[in-house]
Amino acid sequence: MKSNIKPAEGKLGILLPGLGAVATTLIAGVEAVKKGLAEPIGSLTQMGTIRLGKRTENRRPKVKDFVPLADLNDIVWGGWDVFEDNVYESAMNAKVLDAGLLNSVKDELQKIKPMKAAFDKNYAKNLTGTHVKTGTRYELAQQVIADIQNFKEANDLERVVLVWCGSTEIYYEASDVHTTLDKFEAGLKADDKLIAPSMIYAYAALKLGIPFANGAPNLTVDIPALIDLARETNTPIAGKDFKTGQTLMKTVLAPGLAARSLGVSGWFSTNILGNRDGLVLDDPDNFKTKEVSKLGVLEDIFKPEENPELYGDIYHKIRINYYPPHGDNKESWDNIDIFGWLGYKMQIKINFLCRDSILAAPIALDLALFSDFAKRAGMSGIQEWLSFYLKSPQTAPGLPAESDIFKQLIKLENTLRYLMGEDLITHLGLDYYEELVEAK
Amino acid sequence: MKSNIKPAEGKLGILLPGLGAVATTLIAGVEAVKKGLAEPIGSLTQMGTIRLGKRTENRRPKVKDFVPLADLNDIVWGGWDVFEDNVYESAMNAKVLDAGLLNSVKDELQKIKPMKAAFDKNYAKNLTGTHVKTGTRYELAQQVIADIQNFKEANDLERVVLVWCGSTEIYYEASDVHTTLDKFEAGLKADDKLIAPSMIYAYAALKLGIPFANGAPNLTVDIPALIDLARETNTPIAGKDFKTGQTLMKTVLAPGLAARSLGVSGWFSTNILGNRDGLVLDDPDNFKTKEVSKLGVLEDIFKPEENPELYGDIYHKIRINYYPPHGDNKESWDNIDIFGWLGYKMQIKINFLCRDSILAAPIALDLALFSDFAKRAGMSGIQEWLSFYLKSPQTAPGLPAESDIFKQLIKLENTLRYLMGEDLITHLGLDYYEELVEAK
Amino acid sequence: MKSNIKPAEGKLGILLPGLGAVATTLIAGVEAVKKGLAEPIGSLTQMGTIRLGKRTENRRPKVKDFVPLADLNDIVWGGWDVFEDNVYESAMNAKVLDAGLLNSVKDELQKIKPMKAAFDKNYAKNLTGTHVKTGTRYELAQQVIADIQNFKEANDLERVVLVWCGSTEIYYEASDVHTTLDKFEAGLKADDKLIAPSMIYAYAALKLGIPFANGAPNLTVDIPALIDLARETNTPIAGKDFKTGQTLMKTVLAPGLAARSLGVSGWFSTNILGNRDGLVLDDPDNFKTKEVSKLGVLEDIFKPEENPELYGDIYHKIRINYYPPHGDNKESWDNIDIFGWLGYKMQIKINFLCRDSILAAPIALDLALFSDFAKRAGMSGIQEWLSFYLKSPQTAPGLPAESDIFKQLIKLENTLRYLMGEDLITHLGLDYYEELVEAK
Amino acid sequence: MKSNIKPAEGKLGILLPGLGAVATTLIAGVEAVKKGLAEPIGSLTQMGTIRLGKRTENRRPKVKDFVPLADLNDIVWGGWDVFEDNVYESAMNAKVLDAGLLNSVKDELQKIKPMKAAFDKNYAKNLTGTHVKTGTRYELAQQVIADIQNFKEANDLERVVLVWCGSTEIYYEASDVHTTLDKFEAGLKADDKLIAPSMIYAYAALKLGIPFANGAPNLTVDIPALIDLARETNTPIAGKDFKTGQTLMKTVLAPGLAARSLGVSGWFSTNILGNRDGLVLDDPDNFKTKEVSKLGVLEDIFKPEENPELYGDIYHKIRINYYPPHGDNKESWDNIDIFGWLGYKMQIKINFLCRDSILAAPIALDLALFSDFAKRAGMSGIQEWLSFYLKSPQTAPGLPAESDIFKQLIKLENTLRYLMGEDLITHLGLDYYEELVEAK
Ligand SMILES: NC(=O)c1ccc[n+]([C@@H]2O[C@H](COP(=O)([O-])OP(=O)(O)OC[C@H]3O[C@@H](n4cnc5c(N)ncnc54)[C@H](O)[C@@H]3O)[C@@H](O)[C@H]2O)c1
Ligand SMILES: NC(=O)c1ccc[n+]([C@@H]2O[C@H](COP(=O)([O-])OP(=O)(O)OC[C@H]3O[C@@H](n4cnc5c(N)ncnc54)[C@H](O)[C@@H]3O)[C@@H](O)[C@H]2O)c1
Ligand SMILES: NC(=O)c1ccc[n+]([C@@H]2O[C@H](COP(=O)([O-])OP(=O)(O)OC[C@H]3O[C@@H](n4cnc5c(N)ncnc54)[C@H](O)[C@@H]3O)[C@@H](O)[C@H]2O)c1
Ligand SMILES: NC(=O)c1ccc[n+]([C@@H]2O[C@H](COP(=O)([O-])OP(=O)(O)OC[C@H]3O[C@@H](n4cnc5c(N)ncnc54)[C@H](O)[C@@H]3O)[C@@H](O)[C@H]2O)c1
Ligand code: NA
Ligand code: NA
């Protein structure tokens, strides 16, 4: 297997539609890491280790030492935005990172200027950017394709990946124009308003065989037309919605309750956030996109239809509140009403003083690096093993999404082990005790 | 494999040293369940399901329908205590379950009267029970053996298991008398004070080939002498300390942080509880036993020596507070200081309004049923696959304990699959996408 | 002064428009107290003490022993509702009190059957009651007057008071028809839709010289027309909105911050509740009434225009969430962003697991008893000294409302002292040290 | 009255025994305020306003514009410590204020060097300072007197005050040597170990007629010998223990519960702190001093003997935990078990992310300024009106301490009004409604 994976030689371009809080935190962070000023905490590819073989072998290399990933020093950044601010200015506005840190990589950040965005204000009413391309959707797609090609040539890149870090678009569902590639391309030409701006970037990338990952909850690449295109051009895709904060906690905690067969009657989740993302989500249409993405995870994990006595009657409510005093320091509260032995009630309350973009940036990095790796490993289409990073993961048609973060992790790790020719881990481990079996 | 497992025919005796809050909640609960008055929530064996085969097969039977476990209707209860109260009286004192519920099973509970305890007040200074056996430790052991045999005959039982539900004993470490069976038996005869009362029950059970599980944090069966005896008499053992409440949460949450390579600088855990268990733990010597049991889990999970940048400098503090107003409604607070991308700090605060014995009772039940099953499946010695239920699990010498509840769960499930002749689950699942592999 | 207060002789009728959770908790509770089954905790009139004279005098009688209030044994209950359920049935539905307790006063409660309501569904869209009067608003008022008179005669009552415990009405402001008594009475005859149902009860009571207190946030008696009528008929009025739960906490905590000149930049309040009140408030129009009532208190207390550096820029947000799993057990979270010395930031987080009607019932009782007392003491119109009990207290025109619960308490206590001929308390107390002054 | 108060002319020396976190935060802060870099938030003297006259007069000046206090620009700083660090170094160690802010007043801070301390290691075992005076207690007292006189002359000061900001001393109670001035002075000469170091400073100050306030929970000036000396030399004294953080909240919240006659069955308070103060308090003997100071407030406020049904059975527990990860960012949790109407239970949980020294510094400032004011106003001995600032306030013998912060505030405000010849406020306010009375 290992022999089939192309090495990570040459430079990798990471192009980000949307150079806001997450994107600039990512870029500034990697530049700081490259200078030895900070550590890429929260990134499994950079900090994580993976167990190989039996426990007694004590093999536990870093992921990046086990799998051939692009080196941080080989990354070149670019992106699009509806505002003209360069990455330094945008990072200062976002107020996620300290001015001191940003100034230490000011030169690198100032150089990165957004290309004009493919945008449609109907998809984000609270945004009034002016740095936008003009033309029909088809023309916009051609311009994005040209942007990518120019960027690749200008920077002498070996490979490119795209990660959508743009604002959450308003809620929409897949409609006829999204069902086949033919209809989609016809829709582009007809400037069909049902094609969202984010889809234009995705289409452009996939046409060029460039991996595309989607950090927002909008469908984007999660439509048959683009899934087909991905398979056609042998390109990995991954979506949707970076799994951070409250949902991250939920997909950690819910599996714990399910593991123990503890019942759940209610789950109330509320949070406050005061950044630009919060402002966009203050519009009910955009909030709905986020809400749908967040609501699904409990059903995935609890499977109420199979466990009706425990999870058949959960009242799950999510409220997001725009609250400027906290800026990017999103804070969440969960109240979980559970019941145990004989139906006796208990409550779990979680208060997470988190930092939104601090949690999202390393995810965007890992998605970029793993997407590039997947491409080199000959994988294409939906990368279910990356659902570890996503609130609302794409799966093969007919297959329920798996939101349990621990199953997602095993899937990710066993995928890496499999691709690298290592034994899969089953945690059986009877051999340590019984000398009965070969399994690990 | 399946063919080798003896069926669960006839009656199963469950004997509990310590008929306090946990034990009476267990007994009253099972009796209520048998009458259709309540559900055994929180018990994996009774309520849990297990996935078999590929996801698309949709095979997800209840555990009890998959594995041949003793039926609840075949259970006969017994136990020992230093107080004379019958199970109804003791349950009323414990104030865990409503009087209404207890009265509905009053007849069944009143019949269960404790046998005299093998006790030594030095091991629990805050207890002043009088319902105790007399004699040297060796004589006590012989009396317990006789108790078990009489109980078995009197009730016409096919099989028996013991689960220690007695108070936490004061802190002690393994010493010379615990190292070999010979020394241990000599110690019994010499009435060596270093042999704890709980060990007397364990010795008696193992001598008879009867499985023994330990719900308290004291060593008990976790000493070479008794591990050897277990192997000799082909008897499964499991210990130690029911994993409930705050530690349960910890072993759910910590793996989630580790999965995402998020750093941890401090973890402060405090709780308040007002039951008899709390009173015993108010003595510093007994508290130490609990503390040691609770402290270990973070190291098991975070492996600081392998991940020094993330977990090399955790300040972990645990405080238990006796607080009568809450009775058995233990309540815990955790403050977790974490850091992410570039070292930026965040905090997670968890407040768990739990009910101690409500969480512990189904664990005691599962340990009893699975221990009995293990015996019938020909397994003996340490049952690492039961560490799912334990705060401080026993492992083979030299093998680090695994406290990550999700790895424990996979281990448990894959053990059941293995014993029942089903494929192990690896969560690889590439076959749904690539038709490349056979693995699931 | 004392000599002018009429004694509390004979029976007092307490009539409650709205026999829902609060009203039935009040009635059942008083009946249980009368039987010696429980204590009227939370009621200042019944449980509270009041200091008289100098500290060294050690005079601290119960309020009810100091002020001539009606005795609980002299109360006769009645009310109106849009549902036909008697008080026992309604209390069972409300699920505030245990069935056991309710059954112990079942006879008393079953006897109390609601009179038909003066109702207009436009004022509470989520309610579909059928037990309603018909006719123009003027005719409804005449029917309510007759109801009151019949009730008084039938029960041989000396005095009557009304306390509105009906659902929160949709948001409305005072309009022309509310400005004078003449216009109001013309409006009644013209069946003017701008006259809310609650106003019909208030008008009927005041016409008869019967005190009226308003436990809901709707204006009701807080309009010039009815304030004038109250002065005309020498009748005390008090409103509006029982001060319980989160707002109670707010008016306790905010004065503490203001006392210490600590700045506040944000205050986020959210709560979950699952009772019928919550269902009504789930309608945005009704929620608005509640929100307006709750929002004002911070301004009253912090006076941002006078303390702009500390309170000029508070972001205050209130969210109420209907969450059925908790029933009447309303639960609230407050996050308060404060700043201290040199602007350094701190946070206070409050989680209140409260019981809505348990907090409201004793307030309704005190308002009834004190309103009756005020009438006997010859006081009329707005009773500012009762603002202690109210979220959004009425004041004399041009006078800012005082929401600081401690100033409200001193006002209440000094009013009682004044009326009973005792010295006012100033807490000066220099005399203990300096022998300089007479003040206390 | 006003005419008797001496004006605040000339320079005021503030001398602080203990130049640690609180003291340096105070000094650095005032210097920053003087430069216009920050605001003295949290200081009632600097930021607070006071209502004068009737509400309709709208007179609400700043306290410092109403009362003749020393101007911040007239303050000269000095102090003693067992470590040699100057105030800049000590502030950097304390890590309370940002390095940026400290650097902007570096010159001012570096100049302030501690004088050698009067110290006895038995009173703070976790401290190993070397910058200490030698001699008997009497000699130490003479040296401190000389220090003060030299400081006054060298800086051309008009007046001086002392505020103890030293570490908490181990627990001790008043003994024979503390009962009279004669015995005390004999004890100094005999170098009696029962005389604590803090008493030496207090004695020196009072001998010179210099006000002394005590920010720590040790007795210090709260002994008959020094109270007598204060009266003799016409000197104000105030103590003890700055009221910040958790206790501040407690004396805000408890009066709110008492106001409403809500019962309390338990109050559990725990906190974590990681500064030097926390290290000293990690010693059980020093912790006891703090605990005693903190425990009293609930009794003061709830008066259980007078309200046995509500407060007769409170279980009050306080735990302080040294937790280095949080540094000076003390964080506290309170769980309050309350009961209302008919005994139904509710819970209040408070989580305060506070900053210890940020809360304490403005209190130290106010105590200094008000003590100086009191001296000029001819007041002497215990200043009960300053108990607003203190956890464990001194009172006249036989008078119970008043810990309700709102009563303390009225006392403080009415004292200022009284001294300045303004009407006392009673909040009666009937005049707005009834034209009946003159009271306000
Ligand atoms: N931060 C998190 O924790 C987190 C978690 C999950 C998902 N997300 C998602 O990630 C995305 C980015 O979040 P953020 O906090 O950086 O938001 P942000 O508002 O700071 O940045 C988004 C940027 O996208 C730009 N943009 C919008 N539409 C565009 C278009 N069509 N083309 C190019 N640029 C466009 C905006 O101008 C803005 O600068 C959002 O969709 C958010 O919901 C974030
Ligand atoms: N409840 C939980 O969540 C939980 C979790 C983990 C572990 N545990 C452990 O389970 C055990 C039982 O907990 P509990 O809440 O039921 O405590 P409990 O105090 O209510 O009951 C313990 C009983 O054991 C009896 N006992 C003590 N020594 C004995 C002896 N030598 N022989 C026979 N009886 C003896 C006591 O008299 C008492 O009745 C404790 O060790 C506790 O630490 C409980
Ligand atoms: N419980 C609290 O803590 C609290 C606090 C402040 C204010 N309040 C207010 O008190 C009121 C009562 O609260 P609740 O919890 O008892 O609500 P509830 O819904 O249980 O009871 C209200 C009752 O009023 C009846 N009603 C509505 N309109 C009526 C009309 N025109 N005439 C007669 N009956 C009418 C309804 O049918 C219902 O039975 C609400 O307005 C609520 O907002 C309650
Ligand atoms: N920060 C708060 O919120 C707060 C609240 C209430 C009370 N207090 C009390 O205020 C005091 C100061 O607190 P801190 O946080 O600044 O502590 P800190 O430990 O930072 O400073 C105390 C300083 O006093 C010095 N010291 C000890 N004994 C001395 C002596 N005999 N003479 C001269 N110096 C001496 C120590 O060397 C140290 O530098 C403590 O007693 C604390 O308990 C603080
Ligand atoms: Na293994
Ligand atoms: Na007034």
UniProtKB/TrEMBL annotation, chains A, B, C, D:
<dbReference type="InterPro" id="IPR002587">
    <property type="entry name" value="Myo-inos-1-P_Synthase"/>
</dbReference>
<feature type="domain" description="Myo-inositol-1-phosphate synthase GAPDH-like">
    <location>
        <begin position="245"/>
        <end position="357"/>
    </location>
</feature>
<comment type="similarity">
    <text>Belongs to the myo-inositol 1-phosphate synthase family.</text>
</comment>
<dbReference type="InterPro" id="IPR013021">
    <property type="entry name" value="Myo-inos-1-P_Synthase_GAPDH"/>
</dbReference>
<dbReference type="Pfam" id="PF07994">
    <property type="entry name" value="NAD_binding_5"/>
</dbReference>
<dbReference type="InterPro" id="IPR036291">
    <property type="entry name" value="NAD(P)-bd_dom_sf"/>
</dbReference>
<protein>
    <submittedName>
        <fullName>Inositol-3-phosphate synthase</fullName>
    </submittedName>
</protein>
<dbReference type="Pfam" id="PF01658">
    <property type="entry name" value="Inos-1-P_synth"/>
</dbReference>
